[in-house]
Amino acid sequence: MTNNFTTDVLIIGGGLHGTSTALHLRRRGLTVRIIEKHYPGRFASGVNAGGVRSLGRHPAEIPLSLAAMEIWHEMSAFIGDDCGFHRVGQVKIAESEAEMKELEVRVDSVRNLGFEHEELVGGNELRDLVPAAAPHCIGAIVCREDGAANPILTSKAFWRKAVEEGVLYELGSTVINIERVDGFWKVFNEKGVFEAPVLVNCAGAWGDIIAAMIGDCAPLKTEALTMMVTEKLSHFVRPVCGLASGGLSFKQSSEGTLLIGGGHLGLPDRDAETTEPDALAIMNSARIVTRVFPQLKDVSVSRVWCGLEGKLPDEIPVIGASENAPDAFHAFGFCGHGFQLSPIIGRLIAEEIIDGKSSLPIEAFAISRFSR
């Protein structure tokens, strides 16, 4: 073993959560190496819809999301790049009185927890926010501080800043095995053996595999989330739009193209590291879009793709210390909504490692919840 392969912390996975963790650790004086089997942003971090939202979060995620939003609003100060972030707000639209009632209950429940970032608006204000919405849309929840960013630019900006600040990257190598020997983690891959006293698993859709190597268990399922991009159109919508009934994530880029998602599933192959869009899912997505924005029925789709994502049964991630291994930590399984959280997740994992406790509550995300 050479000293060139030894650092204070080893991170497996160089996406946004791994790189964010590395940045926060470096800024507190630790040496960090990231082992990434391709390049940062190759999978979920760089190919997602780019939503930067606090809207509709699981209650346990709300404090994390609001703290992350503060960083997004000062992203240039954090990493020297705004990552294409623009604060345009996000809305969740109701198409019926029953859905409007559901949104009212949601806003009340969030306020009962002490948070006021979600605001209920009626039909008139919805028309002001989204004039192009179909007449049957009667109201919405709005989060005015939310917005969107460019996932590819964000992944590159985080990576670039991490390298500038001394994070070491080992790219193009898959982890083969992990062992704990004399107080050090030894990570084996095709290029050699790397060691550190602390290990962090940020392996995304492969997070359960890395967890199993150190004795932890997470019932992660791989999904292929489908996105579509249209031809360029004249600008007609400013906020990011979703539906109370689900099935829609809709935003217009500064260039005029529409980026359309909403959880429609393609066909994943984790072993082959490939995804394939599903024609029926694409058709269903198009039906939902044109129901809410009927003027788009003749718009052409330019490109369709899927991103590989890890999903857990309760639809919240694993964040925090290993259940069964010392000096090991996890941040994976973000279920398609980890992009916005990434700046704060890195800080919380760094706090867990250095301070022994995070500054925000993360007990709900413990991997031990799956062994109870």
What structural keywords apply?
FAD/NAD(P)-binding domain, 2 domains, six-stranded mixed β-sheet, 372 residues, 21 strands, alpha+beta, 27% strand, D-Amino Acid Oxidase, Chain A, domain 2
Our count of helices gives 10
Q: CATH superfamily membership of the largest domain, which one? A: FAD/NAD(P)-binding domain
Coarse morphology: globular
Describe the strand arrangement of the main beta sheet, using strand numbers. 5-6-4-14-15-16-13-19
Kindly provide the name of the CATH class of the largest domain: Alpha Beta
> Mind telling me which CATH architecture of the largest domain this is?
3-Layer(bba) Sandwich
Terminal Cα separation, in Å? 39 Å
Helix proportion: 25-40%
- Total individual domains: 2
Q: Using only CA atoms, what is the Rg?
A: 21 Å
Which structural class matches the secondary elements?
Answer: alpha+beta
**Strand share of the residues?**
25-35%
Q: Mean pLDDT, rounded to whole units? A: 95
Low-confidence stretches: none
CATH topology of the largest domain: FAD/NAD(P)-binding domain
Number of strands: 21
Q: Biggest sheet: strands, sense, closure?
A: 8 strands, mixed
In short:
The protein is of the alpha+beta class. The protein has helices at 16-26, 44-47, 62-72, 75-79, 97-112, 123-129, 151-164, 207-213, 279-292, 342-355; strands spanning 9-12, 32-36, 51-52, 90-94, 119-122, 139-143, 147-148, 168-171, 175-181, 184-189, 192-196, 198-201, 221-230, 240-243, 249-252, 258-261, 267-269, 274-276, 301-311, 318-321, 328-332. The protein has two domains: 3-50 and 152-219 and 314-370, FAD/NAD(P)-binding domain (3-Layer(bba) Sandwich); 90-144 and 221-311, D-Amino Acid Oxidase, subunit A, domain 2 (D-Amino Acid Oxidase, Chain A, domain 2, 2-Layer Sandwich), CATH 3.30.9.10.
